[in-house]
Design goal:
Blueprint (H helix, E strand, L loop, with lengths): L1 E3 L7 E5 L10 H12 L4 E5 H9 L1 H8 L7 H10 L2 H6 L8 H10 L3 H14 L4 E4 L11 H13 L1
Parallel strand pairs: 2-3, 2-4
Antiparallel strand pairs: 1-3
Length: about 160
């Protein structure tokens, strides 16, 4: 989902990553957009979490979004897409998930690869000069890496 101006070159594209809440607007992102617009910057917002929630269903999305951050289920979902396979193999193993966390992971794991390219394409369609990931402090930061890798693939390889 994209919010913002529909004309001209985008100076800044703000991205709300997966697993931020989709039940209420991201106030910080909206304030940041307003500050950019007030300075004359054409600014758009891409809601990557809404795209994922639409694909997997709200209940499955909320199970991860509202789950224990310590389990890093969101990070686990994006980890294999954030790094080359050799790097993933060399990463420190994570603690085992509980049965419930494993069930939540299993409900979403197959939905991640098909959402990466379309969301990255949306980012590139903005043709932005700058890309800013915006979310709450505890947002799983690894969730941004696959979009960046995919965006570079489109911009520099295609």
């Amino acid at each position: 989902m994209i919010g913002g101006s529909t004309t001209g070159l985008t100076d800044i594209c703000l991205v709300v990553p997966p697993f931020d809440s989709v039940h209420y607007p991201q106030l910080g992102t909206a304030i940041l957009k307003s500050a950019c617009v007030a300075r004359g910057l054409n600014t758009r917002i891409v809601y990557a979490g809404i795209a994922l929630a639409k694909r997997v269903g709200l209940e499955a999305y909320d199970a991860i979004s509202h789950g224990q951050m310590k389990a890093m289920v969101g990070e686990r979902l994006f980890r294999p897409h954030a790094y080359p396979p050799a790097t993933v193999a060399a990463l420190h193993p994570l603690e085992a998930l509980t049965i419930g966390q494993s069930a939540d992971f299993d409900r979403l794991v197959d939905a991640i690869p098909p959402m990466l390219d379309p969301t990255s394409e949306r980012l590139l369609l903005n043709n932005a000069n700058g890309l800013i990931w915006s979310g709450f402090v505890g947002s799983p930061t690894i969730t941004i890496a696959p979009f960046i890798r995919s965006s570079f693939k489109y911009r520099f390889i295609s």
